[in-house]
Design brief:
The complex is a heterodimer of chains A (548) and B (265).
Chain A: H1 4-40, H2 48-64, E1 69-71, E2 76-78, H3 90-119, H4 124-144, H5 151-168, H6 183-209, H7 213-229, H8 240-253, H9 255-274, H10 279-304, H11 318-321, H12 327-359, H13 364-376, H14 381-404, H15 407-410, H16 415-434, H17 440-446, H18 451-472, H19 478-509, H20 514-528, H21 532-545
Antiparallel strand pairs in A: 1-2
Chain B: H1 3-21, E1 27-31, E2 34-41, E3 47-51, H2 65-68, E4 73-77, H3 94-107, E5 114-119, H4 122-132, E6 137-143, H5 164-173, E7 182-187, H6 198-222, E8 228-233, H7 240-243, H8 245-264
Parallel strand pairs in B: 3-4, 3-5, 5-6, 6-7, 7-8
Antiparallel strand pairs in B: 1-2, 2-4
Classes of the chains: A mainly alpha (548), B alpha/beta (265).
């Protein structure tokens, strides 16, 4: 190699050339799809498939510049320590991957700029600055927060959401926006923060290279002080199950409430302040806030279903495998942690919504909806409050459902099975985007006869689900079955009640075969709460636990 | 196999199969070769025909028709171009719609006399029908109908509203068949409602004069013939069949009873 810079760049290429090839392929396919779509429908927004391919390409690029190596006792990714021996300055070590990342993301944006800028109102230079700043924030967080362990991932999510939120700030009313929300002002702010982040990263790496130094000692002391100051359990656990519940809660249960709280605090609350004059926007934001726990539970649920939340290894850790608890106990603990996580996430949502709506929320649209529901249900105030409570309960069960529905594959230790169950949901999302899933209700309602096959498919799914459940639970002790059946009953009853309320309203306003619609609502409610899959989980875990 | 779950699976399988066979039986009325969706239910001596508000499908009677079907034969339908009925020729004025309804009823073997129930814009339509076919009408219930003095600034995306001046002219010109019971439900909306913000309260107060003007117009129209009665409710807004269905059912019951007594005389 002629220079250390080329050596560093060559190493990134050598490790990730196949991912770069995939990014190139996605870009070529995406642009071709866009060209074909544009010919067919000139002037239209880019198709969901094009947007999806762009998103995947950008995500893969971010993965390429995950410039860390696993190290330390916990195996957390950190700045590659082996590079400290290279004959280059620390500035060099920090700047090369950062500049390479910035150059790559700008190049990728250049290739995608035409279809992506067709939809949005943000100007290309502003987006380019945001993308460059994101790369700096991303690498800075990766390197400086290595001691934060699992919370680093949450921080990265918050950073991504914050950069996105800044990107859409200028588009909020009023138009033109105040000076501080102009693109140029925000670009300046973000660029300034990026420079600070770069300096922080440089300083951190330099100090690491010097063996820690005073700042590392101070940071360590501060970290220890925080750990000491936070409430810590000091009493003994009543039994091994209680100890394991505590362990599971600390390692995975807190993630969803933290993530939901982060998204609401960083995105929803600031946006609610900006949109406070518009009743329609307030209402849409309220719906987004209510959807947040459910939507976030899908990716969190994938990690939650594995034996160890933060590890890619699907094997049960020796520490857990050796616990004096049966596989049923371990699964029951996961199910309880998921329930607590869902309840806490919804409490976070409800508390923040109460603060927002009672303080600066524009309640006109919500008031209209409440009035319509009040009038629809015989002028009953109790009915409106009942529906609100039902929404919260159904939301909690839906959140919990996404956390536990993949335990059977995640705990099995069989990577192909787990990957297949994850891919299934990814394929479903992609199919939804490609085929414009939001048009499905309209398509179904255009002709009542179209509901018939959907109802039949749902009926077959119900029959299959409950017979598989009868088989799956055969090896589980009756005590667990009784408890879980109560949970299943409560969840199914919530979904059923919610579905009937929705059906009651929909049947009056839409031309539809109301009998078939009611059948569909009941069948979907019977499908919503997992029974067969949770029944399979203990056997999966047993297989995984004893395979070595 | 877990026996308790197997029993549950068997029961739920039966339920799933039963649910998948449940379907609503619509009748296809034919008008000039075009399909008109009708829902015919119940049985009895009297035949109650429901006329929807502008752009609304027959489902708007979903809280009324099942109860009325307990004491009368009932027919709700989608006018051509609304709900799931095929589009009809233009212009969509009152006389064309009344003629199409009559042909649809006859094609579905629903013989007169009819007790017509029209909500909102369905009110003017049933008045036109009664004026065109007086011998076919045994009674009328107008549920917070569009008043004769009403004006529409725009059609709000509802094609049939584009002919509103003609429809209201034809309605005004239609005579009510002599001696038949005619009930008009005037929904004046409650003054105080829960959940209302200041902006919503202001909006409701702003609409108040319009509601009062409609009430005066209803009284004026009912005074032009004998047998007309006004039923005022402040427990409902404009969507009476949805907000206070029991009042609509009770009023239809009264008209059915009076029409039956009249036919026996």
């Amino acid at each position: 190699m002629r220079s250390p810079t080329i050596a560093l760049l060559w190493e990134i290429w050598r490790r990730h050339w196949s991912t770069v090839a995939v990014i190139g392929g996605l870009t070529v396919v995406g642009r071709l799809v866009d060209v074909l779509e544009s010919r067919r429908n000139a002037g239209a927004e880019s198709s969901p498939l094009t947007t999806l391919l762009a998103m995947v390409a950008f995500l893969l690029l971010v993965a390429v510049f995950n410039y860390t190596e696993s190290g330390g006792v916990r195996g957390v990714g950190q700045f590659p320590r082996r590079l400290f021996t290279l004959p280059v300055t620390s500035l060099h070590l920090v700047a090369v991957p950062m500049l390479a990342g910035i150059t790559s993301i700008e190049l990728l944006y250049l290739l995608w700029m035409e279809p992506l800028s067709r939809d949005g109102s943000a100007r290309a230079p502003f987006v380019a600055i945001l993308l460059a700043a994101f790369v700096v924030f991303y690498l800075c967080a990766l390197w400086t927060l290595e001691r934060a362990g699992s919370l680093r991932l949450v921080m990265l999510g918050v950073i991504a959401i914050a950069v996105f939120a800044i990107g859409i700030l200028p588009s909020f009313p009023p138009n033109p926006p105040p000076w501080w929300r102009l693109e140029i002002a925000l670009a300046g702010l973000v660029a300034g923060l990026a420079v600070i982040a770069f300096l922080l990263a440089w300083r951190h790496v330099a100090r690491l290279r010097d063996g820690g130094g005073r700042s590392a000692h101070r940071a360590g002391s501060l970290f220890n002080w925080i750990v000491e100051a936070t409430p810590t359990r000091r009493t003994a656990f009543a039994n091994p199950a209680a100890a394991h519940f505590w362990f599971e809660w600390r390692s995975s249960g807190m993630v969803l409430p933290a993530l939901v709280g982060g998204v609401l605090l960083v995105v929803v609350i600031p946006m609610s302040w900006l949109m406070r004059s518009n009743a329609g926007d307030t209402f849409r934001l309220l719906l987004a806030a209510l959807a947040a726990p459910v939507v976030l539970a899908v990716p969190v649920g994938i990690a939650f279903s594995k034996p160890t939340f933060w590890s890619e290894d699907l094997a049960v850790p020796a520490f857990v495998a050796a616990l004096p608890l049966s596989s049923e106990d371990l699964v029951a603990t996961k199910v309880r942690v998921a329930a607590m996580s869902a309840v806490l996430s919804w409490l976070v949502v409800l508390v923040l919504l109460t603060v927002w709506l009672s303080s600066w929320g524009n309640l006109d649209a919500l008031s209209l909806l409440a009035l319509q529901l009040w009038a629809f249900h015989g002028q009953s105030v109790a009915a409106v409050y009942g529906i609100a409570v039902l929404v919260a309960f159904a939301g909690m069960f839906l959140t919990w459902r996404f956390l536990v529905s993949r335990l059977w594959s995640g705990l099995s230790g069989r990577r192909p099975l787990f990957v297949a169950s994850v891919v299934a949901i990814v394929v479903l999302v992609i199919a939804g985007l490609v085929f414009d899933a939001d048009r499905l209700p309209g398509w179904l309602l255009d002709d009542p006869a179209r509901l018939a096959p959907v109802v039949w498919i749902a009926a077959i799914a119900v029959i299959a689900k409950y017979w598989i459940a009868a088989y799956a639970w055969r090896v589980v002790t009756p005590r667990y079955l009784r408890v879980y059946l109560l949970i299943w009953l409560a969840g199914t009853a919530s979904f059923l009640a919610f579905g009937i309320v929705v059906w009651g309203v929909v049947r009056i306003y839409l031309p539809v075969d109301v009998d078939r619609l009611r059948s569909l609502v009941i069948l979907v409610a019977l499908l919503a709460v997992p029974l067969a899959r949770v029944g399979l989980a203990p056997a999966s875990l047993t297989h995984n636990r004893h395979r070595s | 196999m877990k026996r308790s779950l197997a029993v549950m699976a068997a029961l739920l399988s039966v339920l799933a199969l039963y649910l998948s066979t449940r379907t609503q039986a619509f009748t296809g009325g034919i008008v000039d070769g075009r399909n008109i969706r009708m829902l015919i239910a119940g049985g009895g001596d009297a035949t109650v025909v429901f006329e929807n508000g502008a752009g609304a499908p027959l489902e708007m009677w979903g809280k009324v028709q099942p109860d009325v079907s307990r004491f009368a034969r009932t027919v709700s339908y989608d006018r051509a171009g609304t709900g799931l009925s095929e589009k009809g020729p233009l212009p969509r004025d009152g006389r064309r719609i009344a003629a199409e309804l009559r042909r649809a009823l006859l094609s579905a073997a629903v013989a007169p006399p009819y007790i017509l129930v029209g909500a909102s814009f369905g009110g003017p339509y049933i008045r036109v029908f009664a004026g065109m076919y007086p011998d076919d009408v045994a009674g009328m219930v107008l549920v917070d109908p569009t008043a004769d003095n009403q004006r529409f600034d725009d059609a709000a995306g509802v094609p049939e509203l584009e002919s509103w001046p003609d429809i209201l002219d034809q309605s005004r010109a239609s005579l009510v068949p002599s001696g038949i019971p005619v009930f008009l439900i005037d929904a004046v909306s409650p003054l105080e409602v829960p959940f209302a913000t200041e902006a919503i309260r202001t909006l409701r107060m702003k609409n108040r004069p319009e509601i009062e003007a409609d009430s005066l117009e209803y009284q004026r129209w009912l005074s032009t013939f004998s047998g007309g009665r006004l039923v005022v409710t402040n427990h409902s807004g404009h969507n009476v069949p949805i907000e206070q269905p029991e009042l609509v059912v009770a009023t239809i019951r009264q008209v059915v009873d009076e029409a039956t007594r009249r036919s026996h005389r």
